[in-house]
Known about the structure:
Blueprint: H1 16-19, E1 29-36, H2 40-49, E2 55-58, H3 67-70, E3 75-76, H4 85-95, H5 102-110, H6 112-121, E4 141-142, H7 148-162, E5 166-169, E6 172-180, E7 183-191, E8 196-207, H8 228-235, E9 240-241, E10 246-253, H9 265-269, E11 273-276, H10 289-301, E12 306-309, H11 315-321, H12 323-331, E13 341-350, E14 353-355, E15 367-369, E16 374-375, H13 388-394, H14 401-409, H15 412-415
Helix pairs in contact: 2-7, 2-13, 4-5
Bound molecules: flavin-adenine dinucleotide.
Amino acid sequence: MKSESSSRKVANATDSRTSTISRPARRDTAIDFLVIGSGAAGLNFALSASKYGKVLVITKKKISDSATEKAQGGIAAVLNKNDSFTSHIKDTLVAGHYKNKKSAVEYIIKKGPAVIAHLKKLGVKFDKDLRREGGHSARRISHVADNTGKAIEDALIKAVKKNPNTEIREYTKALKIIKKNGSAIGIIASDEQKNCTYEIRAKAMILATGGIGQKFKSTTNPEISTGDGIDMAKKIGTRLADMNYIQFHPTVLNAPGTPKFLLTEALRGEGAKIVNEKKERFINELLPRDTICKAMEKQIKQGHKIFLDFTHKKASYTKKAFPYVYKNLKKYDFDLTKDLIPIAPAQHYLCGGIAVDLQGRTSIPGLYAYGETARTGLHGANRLASNSLLEAIATTMETPNGIVRYLSSNPLEFRTK
Ligand SMILES: Cc1cc2nc3c(=O)[nH]c(=O)nc-3n(C[C@H](O)[C@H](O)[C@H](O)COP(=O)(O)OP(=O)(O)OC[C@H]3O[C@@H](n4cnc5c(N)ncnc54)[C@H](O)[C@@H]3O)c2cc1C
C-alpha cells in the first residue's frame, strides 16, 4: 500500500477535477467485497454478502441518488391466485421479442414471490392491491402508491446502515478498474469531497452502477446514470452483450422548460388513454412499450401532438392513487385530473449491459455485475414493465456460492502489490 501523502496522476481518469492530484491522498483500502453503487442491486448485494465478509459500498453522490429511488410503478411478481409463473414468463418473452435467455427468465420470475417477501421483511409496506401495467396479462405489480422505488431504497439504506459488516462511502467515485494477471483486483477511486484519488483493493468487485440514460439527449434517468460501470468494464476487456437493446418509455412529460418526468406505466394499467390533439386514440395502451413508442413516432411524423389523458377518472381517486405524479405535475402547472398531459418517448432503460451468468459472474475473474449494468438475458430486446427491480433484487438476494468460493480461494494478501 502507498503512503497517505503520495500524490498521483490517474491514467484515463474521467473527472478532470481529479486527474492531477496535488493534495494528500486518502488512505488506500483493502476489503473482501467492494460494491460500486448504492441502488437496489448494490445495497441488496451488500446485505447478503455481509454474511461472508466485510463489505464496502462506494457511491458517487448521496447514498439515495439512484434510478431505484425514482422508480414509480413497482415490482412484478406472481402473487395473485388467477396468475401463474407460466403467464409472467410468457409476457416477459413476448415483450422481449423472444430474444431473452430462457433460463434467466425462468430463474428470476420464479423468485418474484420471495423477492416481495424479502422486501416486506426489510420493512417495505406494499399497498394491498396489485396493479396492472403494459404487457402484463394479469395484475401482478406490487407497489407503494406511485413512489415504490423510494420505499425500497429507504428500506435497503436503513438495513445496510444498521449492518456491522458494511461500510458506506458517499461521494466516492470509481474511476478505473485495476486488472492484474487477467483478474480484476481493485479500483482507483476518487474522494469527491477531499478531492483526491486512492486505491481500493478487493477480493471481489461488484459493479452495480445502473444505466446509461445520460448518454442520451432525452432520458428519464437521473444524473448518476452515466454508464460508468460499463465503460470501466469495457476498458479492461469485459464482455458486453445486447448493448443495442435500449428501451424508450412512451409516457414522458414533453413541455418546454420541464424535465423529462416519467408518467408511470401504472396510469395506463389503470385506464389512462394516449391520444392526439384531436383526442383520437391510436394504440391499445396496454401493449408493450416499444409497440406504443412506434405508434407514437408515426403520429409525431405526421405532425400530431401526443397526450396522456387521465381526466375521465375521479379526481379524488387520482390524487390518492398517484400522489407522486399528481404533485410533481402540479409543479409544472399541469393538473392530471383536468389537463391532457403532453408526452413523448424518452430513453428509459438498457436491456443489455455487462454479460453475466445467473451468479453475476462477468468474463473477468473477480468482477461481478448486477442490476441495470448487467445483462442476464431476462429482458431480451425490450423489458417488460416492472421486471427490472425484480431482477436487481432476485439476483442479489443470496450471495452466489461461486463468489463465496472465489473469496475463500483468493486471500487478499495474494492480490496486493
Ligand atoms: C423514472 C424511472 C422509473 C422507473 N420505474 C421502474 C418501476 O416502476 N419498476 C421497475 O422495475 N423499474 C423501474 N425503473 C428502472 C429501475 O429503477 C432501474 O433499472 C433500477 O433501479 C436499477 O437499479 P440499480 O441498482 O441497477 O441502479 P441504480 O439504482 O441506478 O443505482 C446505481 C448506483 O451506482 C452509483 N454509481 C454510478 N456510477 C458510479 C461510479 N463511477 N462510482 C460510484 N458509484 C457510482 C450511483 O450513484 C447509484 O448509487 C425506473 C427507472 C426510472 C429512471
